[in-house]
Design a protein that fits this description.
Elements (H helix, E strand, L loop, with lengths): L4 E5 L7 H15 L4 E5 L5 H13 L3 H22 L5 H25 L4 H8 L1 H16 L4 E4 L18 H17 L3 E5 L2 E3 L5 E3 L4 H12 L4 E6 L20 E3 H9 L7 H10 L3 E5 L8 E4 L10 E13 L8 H14 L6 E4 L6 E6 L3 H11 L1 H5 L7 E12 L9 H10 L5 E6 L5 E7 L3 H11 L5
Parallel strand pairs: 1-2, 1-7, 2-4, 3-4, 7-9, 8-10
Antiparallel strand pairs: 5-6, 9-10, 11-13, 11-14, 12-13, 14-16, 15-16
Helix pairs in contact: 1-3, 1-6, 2-3, 2-4, 3-4, 4-5, 4-6, 8-10, 9-10, 11-12, 14-15
């Protein structure tokens, strides 16, 4: 279908009756000009509430479980009463009750079992998005715009990796033709749940971190959309976190590669997985602010004509540096590194940066604090013999570090840039602990003491002329 637009609304954009009215208004405005699909997140904080409820169920805490169920119901019922005219409320209330009853059934099953099967968790947490989709569709219908809430489990086909599933694009395209095309041809506006899908045999799955944005990009690619608009609560993608660099400005446009690097290194922009289906088909993405829709936002495209140099700086504070060092040069550092990387891959731990020493064959890598214990567990298990016999020194962990990532397609072939960045940091008496840069020259990753992280971000931001 030509000229189709996909819009995705995040949790803050769906966080209340007022925000849903605004989101629906933005959708209705574009729907008047051509075919479109809306993808919605759960209302803000609802996914956390659902996960907390399942944890309470696993722990056998029935009192808190019931309290959470009451909170879940009260919030959506209140939104329904504020959002919809009286004549449309009974049907919506029945739908809300049915979805919460589905969630309650799973939670109480977990309470009886005393454990949370991943498949059951995936089915349960998708209820947040299903409730949002129901409310948005009902409100659009109340405004006279034909709309239908669609469970993405009927559309997005995935593998069976519960909690972090990956899409199967060809089956997804077939499902899109079957489920969404008939609605679009009738000028019905589909309101699709983000975050979830299902296996080929129908078992519910979720898409992991950034799953709602990922759902939107999967659908945009499957529908060959002209653009994807992602609505959040910020004006677009910025040259730095404005809390760290008050003179940060919104970028007019960046490339897929730059957006992926920024997201990977801590910026609150699209998750790298979100961009992959779009990049394959060259579909532009807009990052927009639903609280200030008049602002243009940031466009993410395959290529941008921009000046040489750095385009943005981002940082991460909740990280740890892990060092592995052979006790003797006789031990092959290459083999140790290969086994370490294999262990980290099996632990599903993301490496944020890695650097090595040539003679001692020691190396260090940066991981998120939340993944540190899992990383240590797998490394110590896989290298147990080497540690036990003293071939490797004990793992060294420094949790008092931070990561700065300096990103820009324009850094390629720019002489002296790295030196300027390092000098700008050192002027503030901040020690650089580790440096990593890939052959693409797209990102320079710098590890510093956490106490100097904010100053370092500001120093690099100012040195590279990124402020207003």
């Amino acid at each position: 279908m030509d000229n189709l637009l996909v819009m995705k609304f995040g949790g803050t954009s769906m966080g209340s009756a007022d925000r849903i009215r605004v989101a629906a208004g933005l959708a209705a405005e574009q729907h008047a000009h051509g075919p479109m699909v809306v993808v919605v997140s759960a209302m803000s904080k609802i996914t956390d509430l659902l996960l907390d409820t399942l944890r309470k169920a696993e722990a056998g805490d029935q009192t808190d479980l019931e309290a959470n169920l009451h909170q879940l119901s009260a919030r959506h019922m209140e939104c329904c009463s504020l959002l919809l005219p009286p004549e449309r409320q009974p049907a919506a209330v029945a739908g809300i009750r049915a979805l919460i009853e589905d969630f309650s059934r799973i939670a109480k099953g977990i309470l009886m079992l005393g454990e949370r099967p991943p498949r059951s968790v995936d089915e349960a947490v998708a209820v947040g998005e299903r409730l949002s989709a129901l409310l948005m569709a009902e409100y659009l219908e109340a405004r006279g715009i034909p709309a239908a809430a669609v469970n993405a489990a009927e559309i997005v086909a995935t593998d069976a990796l519960f909690g972090n599933a990956s899409p199967l694009m060809e089956p997804t395209r077939q499902r899109v033709v079957k489920v969404l095309r008939p609605l679009l041809e009738k000028r019905v506006l589909p309101v699709v749940t983000g975050f979830n899908g299902s296996t080929l045999d129908g078992r519910p799955t979720t898409l992991g971190r950034g799953g709602s944005d990922f759902s939107a990009s999967i659908l945009a690619a499957a529908l060959d959309a002209r653009e994807l608009w992602i609505w959040t609560d910020v004006d677009g993608i910025m040259t730095a976190d404005p809390r760290l660099a008050p003179n940060a400005q919104v970028l007019d446009a960046i490339t897929y590669a730059e957006a992926a690097e920024l997201a990977y290194n801590g910026a609150k922009v699209l998750h790298p997985r979100t961009l992959a289906p779009l990049a394959e088909r060259g579909i532009p993405v807009w990052s927009k602010n639903s609280f200030a829709p008049e602002k243009p936002g940031t466009r993410i495209v395959p290529k941008v004509e921009s000046p040489q140099g750095v385009h943005a700086v981002t940082s991460m504070a909740d990280v740890a540096l892990v060092s592995i060092e052979p006790a003797s040069a006789a031990l092959s550092g290459t083999k140790v590194m290969a086994r370490s990387l294999d262990a980290l891959a099996r632990a599903n731990v993301e490496l944020l940066a890695i650097t090595s020493s040539s003679y001692q064959q020691s190396f260090c890598f940066l991981v998120r604090q939340s993944e540190l214990e899992r990383a240590k567990e797998f490394l110590e298990e896989d290298l147990a013999l080497e540690f036990a016999h003293g071939y490797l020194r004990p793992l060294q962990v420094d949790p008092h570090v931070g990561l700065i990532a300096v990103v820009g397609e324009g850094m390629r072939g720019t002489p002296g840039l790295a030196g300027r960045i390092f000098t700008a940091i050192s002027k503030h008496s901040i020690n650089i602990i580790a440096i990593a840069q890939g052959s693409s020259e797209l990102t320079i990753a710098i590890v510093v003491n956490r106490s100097g992280l904010e100053k370092a971000v500001r120093a690099v931001h100012d040195e590279c002329g990124l402020g207003k």
